[in-house]
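The material for today's practical consists of a large collection of protein records. There is nothing in a record beyond a sequence line and a structure line. As an example, a complete record with its sequence and its structure tokens follows:
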Amino acid sequence: MADELKILSPNAPVSQVSPAVNWVPGKIRKLSEIKAGHRVKLMAIQLADPARAQLYAQGLTENKKARVIHNDHRGRVMLKLKGEIYLLGRRETSKIQVREYLPSP
């Protein structure tokens, strides 16, 4: 239980979180596949128009950088984007494509 709470902490260093299985830097993946602690760049939101428009209105658009706070691996993901926390369901996370974000040194 203590490990789960550590992962939910938004300030947990990525080094404490194990990397995703078969993680290939630069490869585009579904948001539902990304483990907690990883920083990602949103590449494509492939939802139908009403759902996509709702995400756009809330500020969740392509080319934004976010951090995965929690992933229950059933499809539900918590993202932190510019100080805001988004809780996305299975339908959304399977249709959002992301790429690992590595800040330039």
